[in-house]
Amino acid sequence: MKGLKHVALSAVAFGLLAFTAGCGSNADGKSANGNNGTSLSGDVAIDGSSTVYPIMEAIAEEYMAEQPNVKVSVGFSGTGGGFKKLIAGDTDISDASRPIKDEEKAGLEKKAIDYTQFEIAYDGLSVVVNKDNTWVDHLTVDELKKLWLNSGKTKYWSDIRPEWPKEEVKFYAPGTDSGTFDYFDEVILEKKQIEEKATLSEDDNTIVNGVSGDKNAIGFFGFAYYYENKDKLKVVPIDSGNGAVEPTHESIKNGSYAPLSRPLYLYAANQSVKEKEQVADYLEFALENAGEMAEEVGYVKMQQEKYDEDLKKLEELKK
Questions:
Q1: Among 266, 298, 312, which Cα is nearest to 58's?
Q2: Residue 62 neighbours by CB distance under 10 Å
Q3: What is the largest CA-CA distance in the chain?
Q4: Dihedral (CA of 47, 121, 131, 173) sign
Q5: Burial of 189 by CB count in 10 Å (0-12 exposed, 13-18 middle, 19+ buried)?
Q6: Can you list the domains of the chain with their CATH numbers?
Q7: Is the pTM of this model over 0.85?
Q8: Pick from 11, 40, 72, 235: most CB atoms within 10 A?
Q9: DSSP string of the chain?
């Protein structure tokens, strides 16, 4: 199993926008889902959310260890970028950190591409500051909004609370193709313009490096990226009206970390599932192992009943 550090190193060392996980062999010859020892071949193409990417990279690696003749490629062009590739027919599965938008549904419909949505894990969008930031102990939703909404003026910490330093705030955020950006834009900014001076990037490691390298920086991304980098970042508890709550596995799963807890998704092209045995097999493996893999890379698994429901949905789809 490879963690986020491997992801970061792979992206930097090889300059990849898409990562193909390493593969191995399975001595007993069983397929990924125990399908009578059937050996499969072919490709499975996945792209989408950088937030969901670590889960899918881990699942792909484990799957290819059991099905070495199947090549699973996993990209991270952002949720919006992933849907564009699904609409273009370039991928079999799109992973997403937000639900599909109406215009994306329309794009798929225009291309006669039917799809099925699956939920695979929970995430808590995490707000982080520099480890040396001693003044921010929590933020209310209103303060978070005041920080990140574009005002056309230089923003200082003292603008949020007068006792905070009069130091310019430096902002780091996911790119506009990111489902994390869309989610924050909807629930915090209410679809108004984000701070124009923010550094935006589809690569969450850019945010990690930006915030960890500047005492006055603030950023946000999926919980797994904070979890992997908690030794060099400080997470900010958020108060939505019931007291400040820090994102943890428990607060994300029970929904008390509000309003920044959210589900993560897979969107599968129905035709790929029906016509490509390796895609159906991979998807079954993914749903059977998503909870464990999500926890491994820092996210939160759903209740088992939800995975069971998704597996039933997949069985119906394969008929």
A1: 298
A2: 21
A3: 67
A4: positive
A5: middle
A6: 4-122+263-318 (3.40.190.10), 126-259 (3.40.190.10)
A7: no
A8: 72
A9: ---HHHHHHHHHHH--SEEE------TT---TT-STT----EEEEEEE-TTTHHHHHHHHHHHHHH-TTEEEEEE-S-HHHHHHHHHTT--SEEEESSPPPHHHHHHHHHTT--EEEEEEEEEE-EEEEETT--S-S-EEHHHHHHHHB--SS--BGGGT-TTS---B-EEEEE-TT-HHHHHHHHHTSTTPPB-TT-EEES-HHHHHHHHHT-TTEEEEE-HHHHHHTTTTEEE--EESSS-EE---HHHHHTT-STTTEEEEEEEEEHHHHHH-HHHHHHHHHHHHHHHHHHHHHT-B---HHHHHHHHHHHHHHH-
Q: Are 197 and 171 in contact (CB under 8 A)?
A: yes
Question: How far, in Å, CA of 279 to CA of 283, rounded?
Answer: 6
- The closest of 291, 314, 281 to 39, measured between CA atoms, is 281
**What's the gap between Cα 292 and its chain centre?**
16
Written as six digits, the tokens of 89 are: 């027919």
